[in-house]
UniProtKB/TrEMBL annotation:
Gene from which this protein is expressed: Hlcs
Keywords of this entry: Ligase
Superkingdom of origin: Eukaryota
Secretion signal span: none
Protein name according to UniProt: BPL1 ligase
Organism placement in taxonomy: Eukaryota, Metazoa, Chordata, Craniata, Vertebrata
Length: 244
C-alpha cells in the first residue's frame, strides 16, 4: 500500500499505514514476523534530503526510531522510570532481559532524496507468550505504589511519530551529538562485553556508536574500533566483526 502511494504524494506530506494484526510481516534477514492484536504496528514513509546531516548518515534512522518508541512512553509524566530500553541496532527491550519490539528501515535514493520506509512494531497490551508495555506498567505500580494507567496502541504510535519528528529535526541541526546523550540514556549496552569474530574470539567492551551508527568496541591493547554483526547470529550482538 505504502509502496504504491509514496511516490504519488508531495514530498512534504507524511504517510503512515497502521495494522491491528500482522500475519506476513518481515524482520531482518527475511525472517517472518507475526504480530497479534495488542501490538502497535505501522509503516511510516518519510523523505530525507541526501545532502543533510541525516542524509549522510542514513543508518542512524533505525536508532532514532528505536529511541522514539522508548521516549513515546518514558516522556509521559509519571512514566519516566518504566524500564523500556533500546538495544543496538534496532530492538526495543524490557531492561536487558526481553524483546518487546523492533524496527526495520528500507531506503531508496531517487536523485537527491531518500525515500525511507520505517516499519516498527512493539507489544503494548498482549501479555502472551512474552511481555508487554502494560505489564511493565502494572509491575511498576505494584512495586512503587503508583496508579499509572495502561497505554493504548494508537496513543503510542502517535507519540512515536511525534517524537521521531523532533529527533530528526535535532539530528538535522546538530548531527549525532545532538541525539547520542538521549540514546545512551536508554540503551542496554554500557560496559557490556562482546566477542569479536567468533565464540572464542577476543573480548571487547562496548563503548558507544560512531558517527555513522556502527557499534564501537574497545579491545584491550588495540584501541576503539567500529564493528557490525556477522549476519548469522540469532543474537545480533553474539559475534561482531571488524570491517576491513
Amino acid at each position: 500500500l505504502i509502496g504504491r502511494l509514496m511516490f504519488e504524494l508531495p514530498e512534504e506530506m507524511g504517510l503512515i499505514a497502521i495494522a491491528v494484526r500482522q500475519t506476513q510481516g518481515k524482520g531482518r534477514g527475511g525472517n517472518v514476523w507475526l504480530s497479534p492484536i495488542g501490538c502497535a504496528l505501522s509503516t511510516l514513509h518519510i523523505t530525507i534530503p541526501l545532502h543533510s546531516n541525516l542524509g549522510q548518515r542514513i543508518p542512524f534512522i533505525q536508532h532514532l526510531v528505536s529511541l522514539a518508541v522508548v521516549e513515546s512512553v518514558r516522556s509521559i509524566p509519571g512514566y519516566e522510570d518504566i524500564d523500556l530500553r533500546v538495544k543496538w541496532p534496532n530492538d526495543i527491550y524490557y531492561s536487558d532481559l526481553m524483546k518487546l519490539g523492533g524496527v526495520l528501515v528500507n531506503s531508496t535514493l531517487i536523485e537527491t532524496t531518500f525515500h525511507i520506509l520505517i516499519g516498527f512494531g512493539f507489544n503494548v497490551s498482549n501479555s502472551n507468550p512474552t511481555i508487554c508495555i502494560n505489564d511493565l506498567i502494572t509491575k511498576f505500580n505494584k512495586e512503587e505504589g503508583t496508579t499509572l494507567k495502561p497505554l493504548t496502541t494508537d496513543c503510542l504510535i502517535a507519540r512515536t511519530v511525534t517524537v521521531l519528528e523532533r529527533l530528526i529535526d535535532i539530528f538535522q541541526e546538530k548531527g549525532p551529538n545532538g541525539i547520542l546523550p538521549r540514546y545512551y540514556k536508554y540503551w542496554v549496552h554500557s560496559g557490556k562485553h562482546v566477542r569479536l569474530y567468533n565464540e572464542e574470539g577476543p573480548t571487547a567492551w562496548i563503548v558507544g556508536i560512531d558517527d555513522y551508527g556502527f557499534l564501537q568496541v574497545h579491545e584491550e591493547g588495540k584501541g576503539i574500533e567500529s564493528v557490525h554483526p556477522d549476519g548469522n547470529s540469532f543474537d545480533m550482538l553474539k559475534n561482531l566483526i571488524v570491517p576491513k
